[in-house]
Amino acid sequence: MIDETRSWGIDVPLAVADAGYGVPPLSASAWRNGICPYAVGVSGRHTAHPADARPVQPAYAGTGRPPKVQYPEPAQTMKDLVVAVGKAAARPVSWREGSRPGKGRSGFKRMYSRFVALRVRPAGRGIRKVADDPELPERWLPTEWPANESEPVQFWLSSLPSGMPLATLVRLAKLRWRIEHDYREMKQALGLAHFEGRTWSGWHHRVTLVSAAHAFCILQRLARDPKEPVPV
Predict the structure, then answer these.
(1) What are the residue ranges spanned by the domains of the chain?
(2) Which of 44, 47, 106, 107 is the most exposed place for a label (fewest CB within 10 A)?
(3) CA–CA distance, 56 with 30 (Å, rounded to integer)
(4) pLDDT at 58
(5) What is the Cα Rg of the chain in Å?
């Protein structure tokens, strides 16, 4: 679908996905390497190397096949990499309006938590098969670590540029919730799921009307908070 959209001359600025697309098998790794940029949820059990890790060529013993270039230290779980940095490295970030009443301009409290963002090199057999270079690609690992938790609670991988601010990383990673919310709103509040026609033209007409109504809702939301990211 992304390739077809690009064939129409429409740029895809960001692909956001849940942890189902962040798992380490080859299919998911190929999916992540095939689009750019992206922000996908991952499990803290998946492994990675620190960003400054470099592969080396082991010495050849003179018999058998020459050893392949490899990283000298074993990969660590993403959770362990974040824990090693420490909870003190987490910084508070606010990313969107919540549903509870507040004293802000919009009348609602903003969502906030504490986050750590590391540069890592995701590891795993599937990723090594997809990568053309013995040096694994460098990626962001934004991680949510609330002040009242003893360990990190949520992890993402992102191919956004290395100079991306933490607040922007968090807002884009958390955008998955907004997409799910908008999809539910389109189905229930705007009537997308209520359509019972059988013709293509009727379905196309319904989708067009619902999309126009959804666009109106987005414009209203932006009028309340121009800084809030909107799904594309």
Answers:
(1) 10-55+70-173, 175-232
(2) 107
(3) 24
(4) 83
(5) 21
Query: Phi, psi (5° rounding) for residue 158?
Result: -145, 140
Separation between Cα atoms, residue 193 and residue 31, nearest integer Å? 29
- CA–CA dist 143, 219 (Å, integer): 30
> Which residue do the tokens 């999309």 mark?
211
Token pair, residue 60, equals 């050849």
- Give the chain as a DSSP string: -HHHHHHTT-----EEE-GGGSS-SHHHHHHHHHSSSEEEEE-TTSEEEETT---B-PPP-SSSSPPPPB-SS--EEHHHHHHHH-GGG-EEEEEEEEEEE-SSTTSEEEEEEEEEEEEEEE-SHHHHHH-SSSSPPPEEEEEE--TT-SS--EEEEE-S-TT--HHHHHHHHTHHHHHHHHHHHHHTTS-GGG----SHHHHHHHHHHHHHHHHHHHHHHHHH-TTS----
Structure tokens at 48: 């990675």
pLDDT digits (tens, 9 = 90+) for 3-49: 888 888 888 888 888 877 655 544 455 556 666 788 888 989 989 99
Residue type, 210: V
Q: Record the pTM.
A: 0.77
Question: What CA–CA distances, in Å, run from 204 to 126, 151, 201?
Answer: 40, 47, 5
Q: Which of 229, 36, 69 is nearest to 139 (CA)?
A: 36
